[in-house]
Amino acid sequence: MMNNDIESVLYSQKQVEQRMDEMAKDINKKYAGELPLVVSVMNGAMIFTSDMLRRLDFKLNLDIIKASSYEGAHSTGQVKVVQDLRTDVKGRRVILMEDIIDTGRTLKYLKELLLKRGAKSVEICAMLDKPETRKVDLKGDYIGFDVPDEFLVGYGLDYDGLYRNLPYIGVLKKRIYA
């Protein structure tokens, strides 16, 4: 029944998996022999992070952070940390895992926060990037796909807490969120 709410499939499950394999090769090369901290930005990145972790073949630590700048379908412009890390980032290389870079505000805030706390470096790995909607100067280090300015769901992306469990990335019909 969820499929009836989807206007079109932007990336199939197979396309998502192939792109993640390619991204993992680059990350594996860079972090071989190191012990970075992978930070999953919840809730959207939980599926992406889980699948990416299985593709990484180096030792790592994992933590989660929950931050938000959204109310419903719109960004408020103000970022707040709802659930903080339990791991000290001082001197650590950090990989932030995110589902989508939209305005960029949340990830810019988190990157600056972790660097202020003493992280040695902070890189961003995101499944999707929506450059048309960017409000701040921010670039991801590992990006799955650049996407158009559409309301996307599936593979962790949601509308009102729904559709995260779709195995593909799709465009939600406007009548659902309008």
UniProtKB/TrEMBL annotation:
Q: Which GO terms describe its molecular function?
A: guanine phosphoribosyltransferase activity; hypoxanthine phosphoribosyltransferase activity; magnesium ion binding; nucleotide binding
> Keywords in UniProt for this one?
Cytoplasm, Glycosyltransferase, Magnesium, Metal-binding, Nucleotide-binding, Purine salvage, Transferase
Residue stretches making up the Phosphoribosyltransferase domain:
10-159
Keyword Ribonucleoprotein listed:
no
Q: Gene3D superfamilies from the entry?
A: 3.40.50.2020
What pathway does the annotation place this protein in?
Purine metabolism; IMP biosynthesis via salvage pathway; IMP from hypoxanthine: step 1/1; Purine metabolism; GMP biosynthesis via salvage pathway; GMP from guanine: step 1/1
An annotated GO BP: purine ribonucleoside salvage
- EC number of the protein: 2.4.2.8
Subcellular locations according to the entry: Cytoplasm
Reaction catalyzed: IMP + diphosphate = hypoxanthine + 5-phospho-alpha-D-ribose 1-diphosphate; GMP + diphosphate = guanine + 5-phospho-alpha-D-ribose 1-diphosphate
Supply the enzyme class, top level: transferase
Matching Pfam families, A to Z? Pribosyltran
Q: Which GO terms describe its cellular component?
A: cytosol
- UniProt cross-references to InterPro entries, sorted A to Z: HGPRT, Hxn_phspho_trans, PRTase-like, PRTase_dom
Q: What is its main location?
A: cytoplasm
Task: Quote the CDD domains the UniProt record gives.
Answer: PRTases_typeI
Q: Which cofactor does it need?
A: Mg(2+)
What NCBIfam families does the database record attribute to this sequence? HGPRTase (TIGR01203)
Q: Which family does it belong to?
A: Belongs to the purine/pyrimidine phosphoribosyltransferase family.
Q: What does this gene product do?
A: Purine salvage pathway enzyme that catalyzes the transfer of the ribosyl-5-phosphate group from 5-phospho-alpha-D-ribose 1-diphosphate (PRPP) to the N9 position of the 6-oxopurines hypoxanthine and guanine to form the corresponding ribonucleotides IMP (inosine 5'-monophosphate) and GMP (guanosine 5'-monophosphate), with the release of PPi.
Full protein name: Hypoxanthine phosphoribosyltransferase
